[in-house]
Design brief:
By secondary structure, the chain is of the alpha+beta class. The protein has one domain. Helix content is 16%, strand content 40%. It has 2 helices and 10 strands, in the order βββββββαβββα. It has helices spanning 97-108, 165-182, and strands at residues 5-10, 18-25, 42-45, 59-62, 65-72, 78-82, 86-92, 114-126, 132-146, 157-160. The two termini are 24 Å apart.
């Protein structure tokens, strides 16, 4: 199995309990990305690269931690919409410790409102120097509220007030753990 990849984007300060915005921008270049055992490159995701996300069970996490669940498509607390600009999301944050912590940290500005997405690439295109990649087909695994973002200034999101599979998710958590441990 190939290693899962993560990319990040930014969100705005909260005013309520629903986090929403553009999770994956289409056609926008990321910042420089460093992957283990690979040269730096930047990438963009082609429109529709994730296919029909409506049937997927995607989780919204804090810092890619499977134990810090914020919302989920299967329960209806995370909703994904494919638009011309990118993959939009709406997530109803639970009144839990992690949900309240994330909301408060964004409100205070300790978290600058950045998001990341975890995915497996099925098809991509590289420039001749392999410094730029366009992801044309991929499997979305999860979205995460994070500290640093690869797509930091190309997306938007806000909190507002409003009344995949298990094996892939486990594999993603394992790969992320390995990556973090190798960069300590």
């Amino acid at each position: 199995m190939t290693s899962p990849e993560r990319r990040s984007i930014a969100i705005e300060k909260p005013t309520g309990r629903t986090l929403s915005g553009l999770a994956v921008p289409y056609g926008k270049w990321s910042r420089e990305i460093s992957e283990p055992f690979a040269p730096q490159f930047r990438e963009k995701v082609a429109r529709g690269a994730f296919g029909d996300v409506g049937a997927l069970d995607i989780k919204l996490l804090f810092n890619h931690d499977g134990g810090a669940l914020l919302a989920r498509t299967r329960s209806g607390t995370l909703r994904l919409t494919d638009t011309a600009a990118g993959l939009r999301f709406d997530a109803d944050l639970a009144d839990t410790t992690v949900g309240n912590d994330v909301r408060e940290l964004i409100a205070r500005g300790d978290l600058s409102g950045e998001m990341s997405f975890g995915f497996y690439v099925d098809k991509d295109e590289w420039n001749p120097r392999r410094t730029e990649r366009t992801v044309t087909a991929a499997r979305l695994v999860e979205l995460s509220v994070v500290v640093d973002a690869a797509y930091g200034d190309t997306t938007f999101s806000s909190l507002r007030s409003v009344s995949a599979a298990a094996l892939e998710a486990a594999a993603l958590r394992l790969e992320i753990h390995k990556y973090r441990m190798s960069n300590v």
